[in-house]
Each structure stands twice: as C-alpha cells, then as structure tokens.
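[Solved] Which block belongs to which protein?

Original post:
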Amino acid sequence: MSATVRIATGSIFVGLVVLALKALSWWLTGSIALLSDALESTVNVATAVAALIAIRVAARPADREHPYGHHKAEFFSAVLEGVMIIVAALLIMREAVHGFFNPRVLDAPLEGLLINIAASVINGWWCWVLIRGGRRLRSPALVADGHHLLSDVISSGGVVIGVALAVITGWSVLDPALAALVAVNILWSGWRVMKSSLSGLMDEAVSEDMMEKIRSTISDEATGAIEAHDLRTRHAGPKTFIDFHLVVDGQTTVDQAHDICDRVERALKGHLPGALITIHVEPEHKAKHSGVLVI
C-alpha cells in the first residue's frame, strides 16, 4: 500500500470519528450551529472516500485506452469535493434560516462544546497531515481534502465561541447566525478547491519558478546542441509533462543526439522525479533563434 493510499484511508477513519463526535455534540445541545458543523463532517467522510477511489485509479499504469496514464483522476475527486462542500453549505444555510424564525434554548451546552472541541483538535491534527503529506507526495486530492478540513477547523472554532456567547448572553439568535456564517465560509472553501482543481484539468503549466529551472537545466545540460524552442509543460496530479524541440548541428549523429537527450532528461528528472519528457530533435536549419539558448 502506497503512502498516498495509507493517508487517504486514514482520512476515512478520522472523518468517521469526528462525525460521530460532532453528531453527539449536536444531539446533546440541539444547536443549529453545531448541526452545521456535523453536516460538514458528513461531506468530509464522503469526499475522503472519493479521494481514496481517485488516488487508486490515478495510480494505475498507462494502458491502451489511457496511454498517458490515469493521473487526472485526482483532479476529478477534488472537483467533486468542491461541489459537495457547496451543497453542504446550502443545507446549512437552510437550517440557519429556519433557526432565525424558530430560536430555541440550548440543552447541555458545556458537554456539547467540549465534545466539539475534541473533534476540532483531531481535525486540526489531521488537516496538517493531509496538507504536508499531499504536497510531499504531489497529490491534489490529499491537498484539497486538507484545505477543506482546515476551513472546517476554523469554522468550528468560530462556532464554539459563538455558541458559548449565545449561552452566556441568552441571545438564542446567535446560534442560527453562526450557522449562516459557517455556510458562507464553506462556500468560499468549496470555490477555492474547485478553482485549483480545474486548473489541473485545463492542463495548466508549471509555476514560473519551475519553468525557469527547466530552462536553465536545458541550457546547462544540452551541451552539443544549439537551442531548445517550443517548450511546453503541464501537470496532472503527481506527474509533470515536459516537451520541447532540440536543435542540433546537421553533422550530429543519431547516437550523439540521443546522448544529449539522455543527459537533459536525467537532469530534468533530478528536479522533477517521475517527469515524462518528450524531446523532438531537429537539424540546424530548423532553428528559430528563440527559446532556450544552449551555453
């Protein structure tokens, strides 16, 4: 079992534990704000399952129907997570509107808040694991799940403070007001998750810093060539695709050109392990006198 799959599997277990705690917190108090927190946790569990499925699909090797692999499956999972977050926010908003017109006094607030705090501590620890592990493993699904949990931790903190104020002041309307604020925060989180995932589905290029590193690596390592042009990059989950045209002297043999390409590929994979690189070798008269000049 890979590290990515282990973390994704752990998310399901952690999500179920947190959901049970938050549901108990709501059951004890009857708070709409705590109900909104529990509803968000149901999304956490569902998206953790979707992320695990997507990660397992993305890990499959290339086949006849998918010659470039299945790496983009993780982006679909992250988009699905964004959609589910937005649906949860709309459900919470509906409960908040109902609470405005039917405010109620909370039951057993202290016990409920302590249980909710315990659930938030678990979530805070796990979102750190997801974001750190997702970046290290270059997994969009894990990073998206981690950012969602981070927004959950922040909103849960606000809910705890607000519910405590509602109990202390006796202002029951604070409870549905907090639920509405949680819904707005979740909507924003869902939009950010979808936006970052759609960039991957649209074959967005690597960052400018990484592009500059790629250019300098080609310039330093392609000794014997003249230039590289039409450099293109895109990323799909943990994989980065790089392709460009490499211009060599017309007297260069096939073996010599192949050696240059091998040297450049090794250097690029040193910066981007697992990168998939395609180099099209061209004779000198194809030079565009632009792009990457070889030093």
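(Second protein starts here: sequence line, then its structure tokens.)
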Amino acid sequence: MKEKIIAKASELFLKFGFKSITMDDIATEMCISKKTIYKYFCNKELLIEESTNFIQKEIHQIIETITIQNHNAIEENFEIRKMFKEMFKSAENSPVYQLKKHYPEIYEKVILNEINQCDSIFRKNIQEGIKQGLYRNTINIDHYTKFYYNLIFSIKGSTSSEKEGQQLELEILEYHTRAMATEKGIIELEKHLLNSNK
C-alpha cells in the first residue's frame, strides 16, 4: 500500500503541483481513507520527500534506457528533453517551481541529488559527442558540464509556467549545443530543432 500511495501521490504532484495537492485529494483519488495515508506518512512533507525520490528514480531509469540506445550525442539530448516534455505534459504550473517556493528544504535535497546524477550524464554525453565529431575536441568538459546544469536548474526553479519552462529549456539546449558543436554538429542540431518545432 505504501508504494501505491507514493506512486499515486507522485502522479498527482507532477500534474497539479506539490502545494495544490492535499492528503484529502490523494485519499479521494485512491478511494481510501486519509487515516490509511497517515499510517505510512505522518505528514505531507514526508510523502513529498518519498515522492520526489520515486520521481527521480523513475526519471533516471528512463534516461538510462535512452542513453543505452544508439543515438548520437545531440539526438540523445533531444530524446531526453522529449521524455521530460511527455512526463510534464499535463502540468500547467511547474511542480519544481512549487517545490522550491513551498518546500525549500526538500527542493535543496532534490537539486543536490540531480546535480550529482546529471554531472555524469552530461559529462558522458560531451565525451561521446567529441568522439562522434559532433562537439569540438578543445572543450573543457568540466566547465561545459557545469554551465549546462546551472542553466537548466536555474530555469526549473525560477519559472512558474511549465510551458514557458519547457520553451526555455529548448533554447538552453540549443545554446549549449551551438557552443560546443562542430560544423557536423550544427547540421545535426538544426535537424532536431526543425523536428522539435513541428
């Protein structure tokens, strides 16, 4: 039952935001009593913490399945973006923005964990892109990795509209890729930008 509550709460938090959804909403959605939820979670903050762990785990499992496919480095980044867009498609207000505003301590833990996870993903992507001739081999990988996740996380935490956040993320991805790309990489980037704007 605990896992079911976390899964349902995660789904609702992503759709409507961490502040908007109450324990009553979760109980009603699951056709259980609020007392059942409190049996496993003494307060909403604890449920939010467990839910963010669940969401992060789910996201990184999906990212892992994307990275083991035979995408080139630029295509891989666009596939990951598509996955996030799909995951947050029904959200009007950014769940990350709500988390930062109303539950800052949990937000800090989430961001710290994300930075650690993303550091290796972004670093590996740049290394592969260099091998594939899509990114310049003169890049300082440490700096470019840091630039990218700082830009991404500053947008996620400061944009209340999910739609606006996703548009800004696309522009950051373009900015990041153009900064690293070879001529071959620019051609690949333009192809994916064309597809993402359809």
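Accepted answer:
You had them paired correctly. Confirming on the second one: The first helix runs from residue 2 to 16.
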